[in-house]
Amino acid sequence: MTSAKERSTHEKPFHIVKRTDLPVWKSWLIRIAAVVASLIICAVIIILLTDDNPIQLYATMIQGAVGSPRRVWALLQGVAILLCISLAVTPAFKMRFWNIGAEGQVLIGGLGATAVMLLLGHSLPAPVVLLLVIVVSILCGAIWGVIPAIFKAFWNTNETLFTLMMNYIAIQLVSYFTYIWSSNKGNNVINTINVDNHAGWLELPPSIDRYGYLLNILIVAVLTVLMYFYLNNSKQGYEIAVVGESINTAKYAGINVKKVIIRTMLISGALCGVAGMLLVSGTDHTITPNTAAGRGFTAIVVSWLAKFNPLFMVLTSLLLVFMEKGALEISTVFGLNSSFSDIITGIIIFFIIGSEFFINYSIKRTHAKEAQTK
Amino acid sequence: MDKQTPAVSLRHITKAFGSKVVANKDVSMDIMSGEILSLLGENGSGKTTLMNMLSGIYHQDAGQILVNGNEVFINSPKDAYALGIGMIHQHFKLVEVFTAVENVALGMDKKTTGGAKEIAKAITEICDRYGFDVDPKKKVYNMTVSQKQTLEIVKALYRGANILILDEPTAVLTPQETDKLFAVLRNMKKDGKSIIIITHKLNEVLAISDRVAILRKGEYIGDVETKDASVQSLTEMMVGQKVELDIERPAVEHKALRLRIDHLTCLDRYGVTALDDVSLEAYGGEILGIAGISGSGQKQLLEAVAGLQHAESGSSIEYIEPDTGTRHQLLGKSVSDIKRMGVALSFVPEDRLGMGLVGAMGMTDNMMLRSYEKGRLPFTDRKTPRQLASKVKEELEVVTPSLNTPVRKLSGGNVQKVLVGREIASDPTVLMAAYAVRGLDINTSYTIYRLLNEQKKKGVAVIYVGEDLDVLLALCDRIAVLCGGKLNGVVDGKTATKEEVGLMMTNLRTERKEADAS
Questions:
Q1: Interface test with B, best of A24, A231, A252 (most B CBs within 10 A)
Q2: Among B92, B91, B71, which Cα is nearest to B83's?
Q3: Which residue of A has its CA nearest to B81?
Q4: Tens of pLDDT along B362-380?
Q5: Which of A39-43, A284-288, B88-92, B160-164 bottoms out in mean pLDDT, i.e. has the lowest?
Q6: B472 pLDDT band (50/70/90 cuts)?
Q7: pLDDT at residue B454 in the model
Q8: Which of B17, B61, B380 sits opposite A18 (nearest CB)?
Q9: Closest chain A residue to B359 measured between Cα atoms?
C-alpha cells in the first residue's frame, strides 16, 4: 500500500457540484455579475498601468460607441455585418464543420459584387446591375464555401485547414484584382465605384436613410429571424443537429450525410456572400483585401459565445462591436495604444466565458453542510 | 464475522444532484474483508453513485466513510487508491495505444528502479497469484473486452487495492469469460480482499456473492446472506412488490415469411470477413433469436438488413410484404430508400447513444429521428413526437426530469427504454433488437420481453440478438447460432438446451465432425 502521507487527512473545504436546475434568470444574473466583475478588474488594471481615471475611461468608451446619432448608426452597422457573418458560420458549426473560412467567403462575395459593379455598371440599367450584384455575390460566397465541403463529404479532408487556406487564396485574389482594377495604375486602390449613377448600390433614398446603414441593418434583422427558425424548426435544421452530434446516428436515421454537409456549406457560404455584398454594394462601394477586417474570425467567437442561438448572437455581436468602437475612442482621447483596448476586451470575454463554469457548476462548502446535518 | 471491524463502513451517506434528484439517501452499510458483496438495485437506484463516492469521483453531501474503523476523507480517486479502494468502471479507462505495462504505469508517481521490466514482473506476479492472464507487452487496442477488463483489475491490484469495486463487470463478457472472472474473484476473496460487485444478473449474484445489499430509489433496503436468497426474493426486495418472473412464449400464429437472407457475406470495416455465406429466414409472428459470442457477425447481419452495411456480391436479402406478398431486395438500398419502399423496419442497435439516439437531444427530439421527414412543409412537427415521448415516458416508466433533458444524462436503462419505445411505436413489420436488455435491471428487462412478445402477437417478425442463453431459450421460437461469422445451425427454442447452443457458439460444426472423425 502507498504511504499514508499521500492520503487526505481532511476533507476539502469546497466541492464542485454540477448544477442541474438553474433557473434562466439566475444564469443571466451570473453573466451580468461576470461583466461587472470584469469591469472592476479592468478598472484596477487601468489605475495600475495608466494612472487614468477608470470611470472617465469607461465614460469615454460609451461616448465613443453611442455618443452621437452617427455613432449609434455606425455601431448598428458594425453589429449588422458581424452578425451576418456569425449567422453564416453557425449552421456549419452546429454541424461540427469547422468553417474557419468565413473571411475568404466574405471577400469572394464582395469581389463578385465589385466585378459586376465595375464591369457592367455602365452597360446595363441600374436595377439589373443591382440584381446581378446580389445574385453573383451570393453565388461566389456559396461556391467558395462548398469547395471544402465537397472535399470533406467525398474524401473526408480536414475542413479546418482547407477553409483556412481558402482565406489566403481569397485575400490574394482580391489583392490581384485591386491591382488590375486600381483607379490610378499602380496605387492598388479602387476608388468608389459608380459614383455617377450608383449602379449596383444597395441603398435607400437619403431622405429615409441618412447614414446609409438602415437597409443593411434591416436585411440582417430579417436574416437573424429566418436563421433562428431554420435551425430550430426546419427539417434541414434538425438534420444539421443530428449530423453534428453523431454521423452514425444520422446514417441510422436515413439522413444523407454528404448531402447535408454540402447543402449546409452552400448556405453558410451564401450568407457570407451576402455579408460581402452588404459591405461592397451596401456601404463601401469598393473593395480592399482588408474589407472583411478579421470579422470572419470574430464571427466564430460571436457564434460560440451565443451557443449557436441566432437571437443571443445579437447580444454577443453587440458586445464585441461596442467594445471595439469604445476602444478606438479611448485610444485617441487618452492617447493609449490600441492594444490597451484589446486587453480590456480580452478580460471581459474571459469573464463571460468563465461565468459558464458557475452556470454549470456550483461550489459547495463541505463543512457547513455537514455541520447542519449533524 | 460479527466481531470483525468492517473493511469499509458507510454511515448515513446522502448525495443529491440539484434540488430534485436524490441519488442516495441516508445509506449505511458495511463491507467485510474476505467477502464478496453484491450491490443490487433497479436502474437509477443509486448503486453507481454510491460506489463513485467510495472511489473519489463524487463527494457525499452528508455522512461518513470509515475504512478499517477510522474515518477517512476521500476527495479524489488518488485518495481512494491510497486507502486501497479501486474501482473497475463499466467503461474502461485505458489508453488504447499503450501496452498493458504502460497503462499500469500511467499516473503512478511511485518510483521504480527497474522501470518497465519491474512493472511487467509485478504484473506477472499478480497474474500468477490470482490466475489472471495478461500479456504485459500487448497493446490495449489488440485486446478483447475481457482482456481489457482483466488489465483494469490488475492495474487496481498493482496500485494496492484491497477493496475492489466492479461496476457491471459481466455485461460485456461471454459466459465462459464470466466463469473465468468469477474464479479470479474467488481467489482474491481467499486472499482477504473485499469485493463489491454491481450486477443485474441475479443468477450471477447467487453464484458469486456471500451477501447481497439492496438499494431501492436511493435508499438502503437491507441485506441478505446469499444462501438464504433466491432470484424471486431478491427481485421482490429490489422492486418492492411481487413480480412475475416467467418469460412468456405465446404460440406462433399466422407464421408468414417476412425476410429471406441468402448467401449473405459482409466485411467489417477493416476488410475482414465478418459474415460468411449466411442464409436465414425470419417469419412474421415469431421471435428469431440470434446467439453467438459477441463479434460473431451479429452487428453486420442486422446492419445489412437495415441498409447500413455493404454486402459482397452474391448476397441477397429479400423482404416479403405482409399483405401483398411483393418481394423487395433490400441490399444495395440506403436507409431512406428502404423507408420509401414502405418497408417498416425497426432497429434497436447495440450502440444506443452512438447510433440509435442523439445524446445531446431530449426525448422529444429523439422521437423525431425516425419520423422528422413526415409532412410536406419544410418545417418539423414537434407536437406528435412530444405526445409520443410522453406516452413512452409513461408506459415504460422512463425516469427523466423533463422531455427535453438530453438523453445522455439519463441512466442506461432509461436510455434503452427511450430507444425501444420509439422503435416499437413506429408500427414495424420487422423489429430487430441487439442486446436490448444489456445493463437493464430485471424489472425493465421483463418489460422489454413483454413488449417483444406483444409485437410477435401482432405478426411482426422479431429478430432478437441476445447474450443470455437462458433468456434466448425462454423467449425465442427459433435460435440461429452464429460462430465466427458462419451460421452454425438453427435450433428450436422449445427443445434446445443451453449446452447445445453453447457448444454451437464455440465449435463450428465441420470442426466438430473432424474432431469426431479423428
A1: A252
A2: B71
A3: A2
A4: 999 999 998 888 888 888 8
A5: B88-92
A6: very high
A7: 92
A8: B17
A9: A245
Q: Nearest residue of A to residue B111 by CA position?
A: A2
Q: What is the pLDDT of residue B113?
A: 65
Global confidence as pTM: 0.82
Q: Is the minimum CB–CB distance between B354 and chain A shorter than 8 Å? A: yes
| For A370, nearest residue in chain B (alpha carbons) | B62
Mutant choice from B75, B81, B302, B351 vs A, greatest count of A C-beta within 10 A: B75
Average pLDDT, chain B: 87
How far is Cα A146 from Cα A162, in angstroms, rounded to an integer? 11
DSSP string, B411-427: -HHHHHHHHHHHHHHT-
Residues 6+ apart with CB under 8 A from A119: none
**C-beta atoms of A242 and B369 within 8 A:** yes
pLDDT tens digit sequence for A69-100: 999 999 999 999 999 999 999 999 999 999 99
The tens digit of pLDDT for each residue in B253-312 reads: 888 899 999 999 999 888 889 999 999 999 999 999 999 887 889 999 999 999 999 999
Cell 498601468 found at: A49
DSSP string covering B292-340, please? -STTSSHHHHHHHHHT-S-B-TT-EEEEE-TTT--EEE-TT--HHHHHH
d(CA B246, CA B18): 39
Q: What's the average model confidence in pLDDT over B135-140?
A: 87
Shortest distance, CA A22 to any CA of chain B (angstroms): 8
Contacts B78 to A, Cβ<8 Å: 6
Q: Which residue has the cell 463571460?
A: A352
Average pLDDT (B322-327) is 87
Q: In this complex, is the C-beta atom of A249 within 8 Å of any C-beta atom belonging to chain B?
A: yes
A366 occurs within a structural domain = no
Q: Report if residue A133 sits inside a domain.
A: yes
Q: Which domain range does residue A274 map to?
A: 69-324
CB contact under 8 A, B19 and A1: no
Distance in Å, alpha carbon of B77 to nearest chain A alpha carbon: 11
pLDDT at A5 over 70: no
Interatomic CA distance for residues B111 and B210, integer angstroms? 37
Domains of chain B, CATH where assigned: 8-239 (3.40.50.300), 256-344+427-517 (3.40.50.300), 360-426 (no CATH)
The rounded radius of gyration (Å) of the Cα atoms in chain B is 24
Is A23 part of any domain?
no
Q: Tell me if A214 is assigned to some domain.
A: yes
Q: How many domains does chain A have?
A: 1
Give the alpha-carbon dihedral of B95, B100, B106, B110, to 10 degrees. 170
8 Å CB contact of A242 and B349: no
Residue type, A211: Y
CB contact under 8 A, B18 and A19: yes
Can you tell me the ipTM of this complex?
0.82
Q: Which of A8, A14, A308 to mutate to test the interface with B (most CBs of B within 10 A)?
A: A8
